[in-house]
Amino acid sequence: MTKSETTKTKGADYDAVIIGAGFGGLYSVYKLRDEQGLNVLGFDSAGDVGGTWYWNRYPGAVSDTESYVYRYSFSGELLQKGRWKTRYLTQPEILDYMNEVADHYDLRRSYQFGTKVTATHFDDVAGLWKVTTDKGQTVTAKYLITGLGLLSAVNKPNFKGIDSFKGQIMHTGAWAQDANLEGKRVGVIGTGSTGVQVIIATAPIAKHLTVFQRSAQYVVPIGNTPQSAEVIAEQKANYDDIWKQVKSSVVAFGFEESTIPAETASEEVRNAVFEAAWQRGGGFYFMFGTFCDIATSQIANDAAANFIKTKITQIVKDPVLAKTLTPKDIYAKRPLCGNNYYDVYNRDNVTLADVKADPIAEFTPSGIRLQSGAEHELDVVIFATGFDAVDGNYTRIDMRGRNGVTMREKWKDGPLGYLGMMETDFPNFFMILGPNGPFTNLPPSIETQVEWIAETIEMMEAKGRASIEPTEAARDEWVGLCRTIADMTLFPKAESWIFGANSPGKKNVVMFYMAGLGNYRNAIGAVKDGGYQTMVFDRANALV
Ligand code: FAD
Ligand code: NA7
Known about the structure:
Elements: E1 14-19, H1 23-35, E2 40-44, H2 52-55, E3 62-66, H3 76-81, E4 88-90, H4 91-104, E5 111-113, E6 117-123, E7 128-133, E8 138-146, E9 168-171, E10 185-189, H5 193-202, E11 208-213, E12 219-220, H6 229-237, H7 239-248, H8 267-280, H9 283-289, H10 298-315, H11 319-325, E13 336-337, E14 350-354, E15 360-364, E16 367-370, E17 375-377, E18 380-383, H12 392-395, E19 398-400, H13 407-410, E20 429-431, E21 437-438, H14 442-463, E22 468-470, H15 472-487, E23 512-513, H16 517-529, E24 535-537, H17 539-543
Residues 19-25, 43-46, 51-52, 54, 56, 61, 63-65, 70, 116-117, 147-149, 151-152, 173, 194, 393, 397, 432-433, 441-442, 446 line the site of flavin-adenine dinucleotide.
């Protein structure tokens, strides 16, 4: 990729470097290059566009946001061209969609794929970012935009003896495209959102499936039904209203969040509402569409949890298995869904290993040995062990801001972010889905952030500003607000990636703004409309 004559920033190779070619990166390229005429260069370590949906090609990979709102809202033309047949999109369908977007706007020409960014250093003197890649190249740019993904840096526990295993090992987030599970003895470690999907898809095709479960999960049906042409036409005709609702809602999943508390509802009403939601399908719907207080009231949470626990005992024939599959903790992790998940354990070719009671001791050449000495012989082991969420891809890059301050040092007690997009001492640096951003269906939040970033950059260019960064006070206040909001919910009481509890050595911290997309949009809009009072401008100029 050569330096272009069209770069506006004096002395820089590019106006902006954008890392990532998922929803966030692609939209950033479009906004900055095509709408503002900036010269941008994108990098992705993947071979092509897609982000999450490029990497996660495991059997059963599907979004659990409904098809009509798991997409960009910004282009009416793209929305009307949208193709889907079922309520949810499978991974190949989402990847097709991302490819279509990239083709439509000719986005690939601004990317260098197969290239990992290894370092991003702010040059205080030049006031520019220096971005270094694993190809040995360094480019400079005024703005650095990271769409690194919050669920993208894989968490792969390093079990004893792992290298001695003679079979195949795969992580769901780095799936080998030629993997074939048919007729194999497959082990799946992990029963989160991904584990549930891969378990459901693998059980019917594997010779034998062994699930290594550490924590039992609450899983409701997904309800992935075919969608009629009439329903799709109606959705397409109503997109203006749909996006208005989505962007002013809490979780942005396209349904109206309930305003009725379960706490005060009778048991009969609760069970009728939960049963209807069970039949309808959808994890976020079950948690946020049934009653308004499941994530905030212990009484409501217990009611929802007990409903699902009863379903488990009804579905799973073997009472010992049913007990092992019944969650012990509260219902406050990312809500999961999948069709007939618990039925999987009624199959003769499926074994459940409770690795909380009997942990994995080591891998052997032929499989996995538990601490009790029990051995499971396997041909393939699938790590559905999740991600070093939110900051994982940031701390894997050597990121340095003003005066060489490193991001790893700044975030040693947990990641920090102002508005989920910026960090102190990192001028002209914008994160998409950075720490303390919204916890929602993500494409509408990504769009919200990219639009705010683009407007901020537009303002910078219009006013001839050299740099922008948040004040420490503003950053701390935002982080404190996120903590306060999170503490009003039950989510901190469950150990999950939402608070960094899944990665060994990671501190348990608040990583999200949990007051919903509508409030988030108001908050970031107020910063812009108020003239960016919480920012320091042109600090670089003052220093040199
Ligand atoms: P990503 O799509 O994660 O893209 C990040 C890109 O950055 C990757 O391509 C990566 O290769 C690249 N990158 C990272 N570091 C570097 C580096 N150092 N150098 C170069 N390139 C780099 N969200 C929902 O809202 N609804 C769902 O139903 C849903 N389902 C999901 C299912 C799975 C299995 C997973 C993993 C995630 C799911 N998500 C879902 C979250 C999903 O990640 C987001 O919806 C969205 O795709 C994120 O887009 P992004 O552009 O921010 O990041
Ligand atoms: P999750 O939700 O973090 O789930 C990871 C699973 O792997 C979970 O069941 C973990 O058990 C289990 N795990 C992790 N490490 C180990 C070890 N060392 N031994 C045994 N089991 C382990 O990741 P997902 O990929 O499912 O989902 C992440 C998000 O991506 C999801 O919310 C979607 O948005 C897409 P634990 O529960 O910690 O006991």
